[in-house]
Structure formats: structure tokens, C-alpha cells
């Protein structure tokens, strides 16, 4: 398992946080997600043997909230 904290564009309200978390939980290998929409940050715990960081970033972009650098 690995835990990462991501800065996510547009993650600034409870509804956005729910959309992001729901989208990520559809991916096999996601263990836990936790949003902080005040800081636009998302903490994700995932199984690295089932999922890559690139797949997580792709899913976030698909739900309209890409990772910012």
C-alpha cells in the first residue's frame, strides 16, 4: 500500500469532493480516499500491485478534477 497527497484542481466544495472520491473508488486497488476541499488536496491510499499513479491521475482528469503540480 502507498499513500499520496495530491493537489487537485477544482476540489473546492463538498460536492466536488464526493464526485472525486466516488470516481476513484471505482478503480480496483483504491483502499481509502480523504478530501480536504479547503486546501484542494486529496489523500489516496492504494495498492501499488493493482494500480499506478498514472491511472489515478487519469481517473481524476476524467471526472473533471486533474492533479495540479
Explain what this protein looks like in three dimensions:
This protein has two helices and three strands, in the order βαββα. It has a single domain (2-62), classed as 2-Layer Sandwich (Alpha-Beta Plaits), CATH 3.30.70.100. The protein has helices at residues 14-25, 53-62, and strands at residues 2-7, 30-36, 41-46. It is 32% helix and 28% strand. It has 69 residues and is of the alpha+beta class. The N and C termini lie far apart (23 Å). The protein has a three-stranded antiparallel sheet with strand order 1-3-2, covered by helices on one side. The longest helix is centred in the N-terminal third of the chain and has 12 residues, at 14-25. The model has no long low-confidence stretch (mean pLDDT 93).
Write a compact overview of the structure shown.
With 69 residues, this protein is an alpha+beta fold. It contains two helices and three strands; from the N terminus they run βαββα. The chain has helices at 14-25, 53-62; strands at 2-7, 30-36, 41-46.
List the SSEs and their pairings.
Blueprint: E1 2-7, H1 14-25, E2 30-36, E3 41-46, H2 53-62
Antiparallel strand pairs: 1-3, 2-3
At the first level of CATH, the class is Alpha Beta
Number of domains: 1
Count of DSSP strands: 3
Calculate the terminal CA-CA distance, rounded to whole Å: 23 Å
Could you tell me the CATH topology label: Alpha-Beta Plaits
Inertia-based shape: globular
CATH architecture: 2-Layer Sandwich
Q: Measured on Cα atoms, how large is the radius of gyration?
A: 11 Å
Strand percentage: 25-35%
Strand order of the largest sheet: 1-3-2
What profile does the largest beta sheet have? 3 strands, antiparallel
Sheet/helix structural class: alpha+beta
- The succession of helices and strands, N to C, reads EHEEH
For the residues shown, what is the average pLDDT? 93
Amino acid at each position: 500500500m502507498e499513500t499520496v497527497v495530491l493537489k487537485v484542481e477544482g476540489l473546492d466544495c463538498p460536492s466536488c469532493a464526493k464526485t472525486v472520491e466516488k470516481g476513484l473508488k471505482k478503480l480496483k486497488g483504491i483502499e481509502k480516499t480523504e478530501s480536504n476541499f479547503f486546501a484542494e488536496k486529496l489523500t489516496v491510499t492504494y495498492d501499488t500491485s493493482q494500480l499506478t499513479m498514472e491511472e489515478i491521475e487519469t481517473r481524476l482528469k476524467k471526472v473533471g478534477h486533474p492533479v495540479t503540480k
